[in-house]
Design brief:
The protein has helices at residues 6-18, 33-39, 44-62, 71-95, 102-113, 139-142, 144-164, 167-175, 205-208, 214-225, 249-262, 315-318, 352-355, 376-393, 437-441, 444-473; strands at 194-200, 233-235, 266-274, 277-286, 289-295, 333-336, 339-345, 363-369, 397-402, 406-409, 415-419, 423-429. With 474 residues, it is an alpha/beta fold. The protein has two domains: 6-184; 194-439, Carbon-nitrogen hydrolase (Nitrilase/N-carbamoyl-D-aminoacid amidohydrolase). Helix 1 runs antiparallel to helix 2 (33-39), helix 5 runs antiparallel to helix 7 and helix 7 runs antiparallel to helix 8. The longest helix has 30 residues, at 444-473. The protein is elongated. 44% of the residues are buried.
Length: 474
């Protein structure tokens, strides 16, 4: 087979088409075939560098919008993420396209990426299917890792069929999607529905943080809140009002007065401070009282805080403009009309393991400000994670964004309502307190794959050892 770089260009292009903004999820079922083909007749060193090259192309196409936030940081992040592709390419060669091991390696690498160096599990392979609820049926059992596993296995089976022409691989590949027919979902919850009013913002970062913008932005949200009559809760985006509320009594009184005037509890993202610490917070205000506060726990590295600045103080000179937020510590559940719910702020929604730590809410609320991205592609990539969280926990989810995607996702992962542009909308959801298998047992599927890899390694070592022993006897 003639060696060519073309497969390592085609593969990342196809894979990027599977994600927003194109969202051609069906392409993900064949995207890896050029990659596997390109690795044929490559040695381990070539496999590493060509796979690294593919990874860099993919993440450059997929995460280009991060340059609107930090150019140097984007280059470093893309290189780091590409290393996972490089390692996977070497593993492909090491285990010789093993049907048993390669899908396991892929999902374990996705899992590691979600933890290592504070974690960045952005856009796992499973997210390519966020517009296809049929394939999300596996998520309540395995989390998104199960779907990533099946996608990789399907690609590998098709590739082996094309390479060997053995029909068993094609039959197995075509049978894989049938698995989802046997994966049922919880029957609809019978709890009392709750009506929500969501208000999407339309303010750029530059406009939002101007000195004279606070009153204008508050008036915008207040006027729309008055149009959402009869709802049980009004929800505003992350840091909706540009102020530090604990240092701005006048604005706190205005928000309280707003809740009083509409006679509806108000959930709003806003900055707060306490004992010299700055927090990205959510306040639930009902009438003249603050009923609850959640302080963001999972902060954005190099965005909301600078990692390791105590050990490497020179980073503060390089990474200018990085926030100095402190993480919260309590996994707060809010309650309105006897209904409990949890709020995730910004990129907290990309961590399923983190979401599991909230004690069985009836529904999810995700508030975010995606204006820094300056990209619809980024906003949709972010929203795809909200779809996955709703499906994993079988709970309805509402996302409210400033210059992003705002809408509702059903407990089955179906996008049931989208707010087009800025404005307000009423939606009704039915809370569901039941726990899915994934909510109860977490990343059991990953630990199973790690066990498979370890057993295969032990078996291989034992075979080698017995071979050496027979040779010595001979």
């Amino acid at each position: 087979m003639k060696k060519t770089v073309f497969p390592f260009i085609l593969f990342p292009v196809l894979l990027s088409l599977s994600y927003p903004p194109v969202s051609a999820g069906f392409v993900a079922w064949i995207a890896f075939i050029p990659f596997f083909w390109g690795l044929e007749n490559r040695n381990n060193r070539e496999a590493f560098f060509y796979s690294l090259f593919s990874g860099y192309i993919f993440y450059s196409l997929h995460l280009w919008w991060l340059t609107n936030i930090t150019r140097l940081g984007t280059i470093v992040l893309i290189f780091y993420l590409s290393l996972y592709f490089a390692l996977f390419g070497v593993l492909v060669k090491k285990v010789k396209y093993s049907l048993l091991l390669l899908p396991s390696f892929w999902v374990v690498l996705e899992w590691i990426r979600g933890y290592l160096f504070t974690g960045f599990p952005w856009s796992p392979l499973a997210n390519t299917q966020f517009l296809h609820p049929y394939f999300l049926r596996i998520l309540p059992f395995t989390g998104f890792y199960g779907l990533s596993y099946i996608l990789l296995l399907f690609n590998l089976l098709l590739y082996l069929y094309l390479r060997t022409k053995e029909k068993k691989y094609l039959i197995l590949a075509l049978a894989l999607p049938l698995i989802f027919l046997f994966l049922g979902s919880n029957p609809p919850a019978k709890n009392k529905p709750i009506s929500l009013g969501i208000i999407s913002g339309n303010f750029s970062q530059e406009e939002k943080w101007q000195e004279d913008s606070k009153e204008k932005i508050f008036s915008y949200y207040a006027s729309l809140a008055h149009t959402l009559n009869g709802v049980d809760l009004v929800i505003l985006p992350e840091s909706a009002i540009p102020t530090i509320i604990s240092q701005d009594e006048d604005m706190l009184h205005k928000i309280i007065n707003l809740s009083n005037s509409i006679n509806i509890p108000l959930l709003t993202g806003i900055l707060s401070s306490e004992k010299g610490n700055l927090y990205n917070s959510v306040f639930l205000i009902d009438g003249d009282r603050v009923e609850g506060i959640y302080r963001k726990i999972k902060l954005v590295p190099f965005g909301e805080y600078l990692p390791l600045k105590r050990f490497f103080p020179f980073l503060q000179k390089i990474a200018k403009g990085v926030g100095n937020f402190s993480p919260g510590s309590n996994f707060t559940l809010f309650q309105v009309r006897n209904t409990k719910f949890a709020t995730l702020i910004c990129f907290e929604n990309i961590f399923p393991q983190f979401a599991r730590r909230f004690s069985s809410p009836g529904f999810w609320v995700v508030i975010t400000d995606d204006s820094s991205f300056k990209s619809k592609a980024a906003a949709w990539q972010h929203f795809s994670h909200s779809v996955m969280r709703a499906a994993e926990f079988s709970k309805p989810l509402v996302q409210v964004s400033n210059l992003g995607v705002s809408g509702e996702v059903s407990a089955r992962g179906e996008i049931t309502s989208l707010l087009k542009g800025a404005g307000g909308e009423k939606i009704t959801i039915t809370p569901d307190y039941r726990k899915t298998f994934y909510a109860r047992f977490g990343d059991w599927f990953i630990f199973l794959q790690i066990l498979v890899i370890l057993l295969a390694f032990i078996w291989r070592c034992s075979i080698r050892g017995s071979g050496v022993h027979r040779k010595n006897i001979a």
